[in-house]
Amino acid sequence: MSAAGDISPRRALVIKLGHIGDVLVSTPVFTALKQAYPGLATTALVEEGTQAMVQGSPHVDQVLVLRRPESAWRAAQSNLGLLASLRRGRFDLAIDLSGGDRGAFLAFMTGARLRVGFEPKKPHIRARAFHRLADPRGTQNHVVETLLRPVRLLGIEPQDLALKLYPSPQARSQAQSILAEHGIAPRAYALVHPTSRWMFKTWTPEGNAQVIRHLLHQGLKVVLSAAPQSRELDFLALTRQALGDHPGVLDLGGRLDLPLLAALIEQARIFFGVDSAPMHMAVALGVPVAVLFGPSGEKMWPWPWMWPRPPWGCWPGACWSAGTRYTSSPRVGRGGRRRA
To answer: β-pairing, 314-315 with 318-321?
Structure first.
């Protein structure tokens, strides 16, 4: 880690407004700040429903949550309370990783003596909220590398680029109880999460059923998960229908909160799914993964998070055509990385 520039902050705020996976892929930023500034107190500001991705982390000392109540009166109360918390925080450094108007406004309202964000793609007044601006452009970079650009503006060269997630002791205990109740041993099952918030990323129910049969044939039990939204549960039901009646399958679709899902992924032998928040969680937990990228941009996920795409357009054990990935038998290495 190189010298941390010309400032020595005592309190830093990192703003990342977005979905679950968006928050999780920002965790290397906290790691870099903590390593660069010993004794730094870090605060994360995230949207409601994503705070589990940073809670319990030794690199995050406090978590503030942006809530969006339906009631206009309650929304006003919540926003005023958040702004008061930002002022009370007396932050020396504020970094906005969101790249939008709301994040820029919140960073500005901290009054931090150094505010860092992303340069708008077109001239915009929100650029005035910051003292330093990072260039967000470039589609050949992993998203983590892009999120670390504001950190590098501080003179910091991050060394630990790994995503990090810390399930709570309560969630781990609950996961152990669920597994024991159904006779499933840790490391003896695959966690299969075939859906995504964006359903266009999903594969077919028949394809997922075939993979589940293969996992069962390999001697693993299978734990199924999906978000509680009806479209994801409907897809999981179609997958179960295509699978048929097989022992060794535990369907927990719609019944897991994020901490419990993280704890169950942590105990799995392998994670199988698509480009989704649970995929990022598996990588952060060091669990081997087999992931299908269909319409997602695979160029955003190279080494060290996943190995690079070879020039002929196929992975060992997986090829795609017209935007569809067809897998055969990918080999999985430790720490969530596939190996050739």
So the answer is: antiparallel
